Inverse folding.
């Protein structure tokens, strides 16, 4: 293919007063090439295609982008080779924050005459197989900037979001990831939002939860009995109430928090009394790192994690001169800290005076966190002074994740918001259609599909019926979202009286699946082996009680684990 290039001739003054520019016409033969690129990883539902569209358009490349059936994306690019290489370089370096590019497969060939760049709709067969559900991530800097700009139409609007940020998993009712299958379906886009949503050059192009004060959900404040109060700025009023020492239940992204100020003992005493939590440490939330540094020690690693798009609670060492009430985490030298991650939190905290506010899950001991307005009011009435509510449904409850550092390495205490329901990166071959339900404390469910192990959000202790039902529905939702056609195996603990064991039997019967009961300590060590891709390990499971195959309760165990079997080498007496 022939391309014409015009180069301006160097400017040569021919007379002192006259500049003459001559143009020289040069013919260059520069072949156009075609690159067919397959991208694998977390690339669907995360703004990856709009990103490709903008990048290709900026670089003047032709071709198209579309989803593939294995949860990947196919990009076809035509143009000059150096521009395509530039595209690929930027794709690796500057892809959307939530996207995780694990594999790029590139095939070069001759151009076939693509014209323009198109974002092609997915084929129905492709949609039917998609198996990655994006998690919720923190609001991005650009949306925050809009929220704090008085001239912007989204000024102070707490549901501001774009293709790079905001809720995903917690609002999804089904796949494909599309507004019609989210709890935003009941908020039709206004003209302005619709124009942004349909404009491939806009960062709200195909941003499913996008909205504005005109067309989106809204927040409102209620008193302790659930009666709606007539206040102009419910978010600012909430900050004022908190600073006054009131306890407020705040509906956020994946559930409710109980919020309170952290600098007054009497407020925390009342909070602990009301919720019957005499000792349990409370997580706190701050607006920015500067505030966190005023009461906790922040290492470089912790800073990165606090500011990450997942925004987990990170356990930090308290400063010697800890200025917050000791009742935040009584008797501990650590405090669980997260940075504000939603527009609602930013709006409240930016108007408050305390360096941190308690933000603990709004649940009664042993029960799942409240997600529904009516349910929250009936459960928490009399325990909190106010409710900050909104009218968007939380489809999937999702608690905050908790991470601590062990020898400088981040370790999950709870893997939930920001991470669930992404698959674990296990180095082991997994059959599809396995469901695992775990033991009875700190439970999460797991489902295998396309070789990946997908975990539910954090469920909790399943001794109460409500929590067991939560586990059941979370596993169901995952099976639906991942389109697992057939459940072949249900795995559970060996303990005969755990409610998860009974649940596993029920599920196995329903699906006609086999049931596999795994010894508790064996399960812990097998998980370790799978995480590190080891076929055999000798491990110490320093975990509490676990039912043994001999019918007695085992304590800490030393086991030789070889895949599905193990040998007991030693252990502590029960
Ligand atoms: Zn954003
Ligand atoms: Zn709108």
């Amino acid at each position: 293919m022939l391309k014409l290039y015009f180069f301006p001739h160097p400017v040569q003054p021919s007379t002192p007063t006259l500049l003459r520019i001559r143009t020289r016409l040069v013919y260059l033969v520069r072949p156009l090439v075609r690159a067919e690129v397959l991208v694998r990883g977390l690339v669907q539902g995360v703004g990856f295609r709009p990103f490709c569209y903008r990048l290709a358009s900026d670089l003047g490349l032709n071709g198209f982008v579309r989803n593939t059936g294995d949860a990947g994306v196919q990009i076809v690019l035509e143009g000059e080779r150096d521009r395509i290489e530039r595209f690929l370089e930027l794709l690796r370096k500057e892809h959307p924050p939530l996207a995780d590019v694990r594999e790029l497969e590139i095939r070069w060939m001759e151009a076939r005459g693509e014209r323009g760049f198109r974002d092609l709709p997915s084929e129905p067969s492709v949609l039917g197989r998609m198996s990655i559900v994006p998690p919720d991530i923190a609001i991005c800097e650009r949306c925050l900037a809009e929220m704090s700009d008085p001239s912007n139409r989204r000024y102070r609007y707490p549901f501001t979001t774009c293709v790079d940020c905001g809720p995903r998993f917690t609002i999804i009712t089904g796949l494909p990831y599309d507004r019609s299958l989210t709890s935003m379906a009941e908020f039709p886009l206004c003209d302005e939002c619709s124009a942004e949503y349909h404009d491939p050059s806009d960062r709200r192009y195909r941003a499913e939860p996008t909205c504005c004060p005109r067309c989106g959900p809204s927040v409102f404040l209620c008193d302790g009995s659930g009666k709606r109060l007539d206040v102009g700025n419910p978010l600012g009023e909430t900050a004022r109430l908190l600073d006054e020492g009131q306890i407020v239940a705040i509906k956020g992204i994946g559930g409710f928090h109980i919020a309170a100020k952290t600098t007054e003992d009497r407020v925390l005493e009342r909070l602990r009394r009301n919720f019957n939590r005499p000792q349990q440490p409370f997580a706190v939330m701050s607006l920015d790192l500067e505030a966190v540094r005023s009461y906790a020690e922040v290492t470089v690693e912790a800073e990165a994690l606090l500011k990450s798009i997942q925004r987990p609670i990170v356990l930090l060492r308290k400063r010697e001169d800890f200025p917050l009430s000791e009742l935040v985490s009584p008797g501990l030298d650590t405090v669980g800290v997260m940075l504000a991650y939603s527009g609602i939190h930013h709006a409240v905290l930016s108007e408050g005076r305390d360096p941190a506010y308690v933000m603990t899950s709004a649940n009664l001991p042993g029960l799942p966190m409240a997600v529904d307005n009516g349910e929250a009011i009936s459960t928490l009435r009399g325990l909190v002074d106010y409710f900050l509510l909104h009218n968007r449904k939380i489809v999937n409850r999702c608690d905050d994740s908790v991470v601590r550092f062990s020898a400088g390495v981040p370790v999950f205490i709870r893997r939930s918001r920001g991470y669930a329901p992404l698959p674990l990166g296990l180095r082991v071959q997994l059959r599809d259609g396995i469901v695992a339900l775990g033991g009875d404390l700190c439970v999460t469910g797991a489902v295998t599909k396309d070789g990946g192990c997908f975990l539910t959000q954090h469920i909790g202790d399943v001794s109460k019926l409500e929590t067991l039902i939560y586990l059941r529905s979370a596993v169901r939702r995952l099976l639906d979202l991942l389109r697992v056609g057939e459940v072949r195996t249900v795995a559970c603990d060996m303990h005969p009286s755990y409610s998860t064991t009974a649940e596993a039997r029920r599920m196995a019967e329903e699906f006609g699946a086999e049931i596999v009961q795994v010894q508790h300590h064996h399960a812990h060590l097998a998980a370790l082996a799978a995480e590190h891709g080891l076929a055999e390990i000798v491990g110490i499971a320093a975990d509490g009680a676990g039912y043994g195959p001999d019918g007695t309760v085992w304590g800490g165990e030393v086991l030789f684990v070889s895949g599905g079997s193990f040998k007991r080498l030693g252990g502590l007496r029960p």
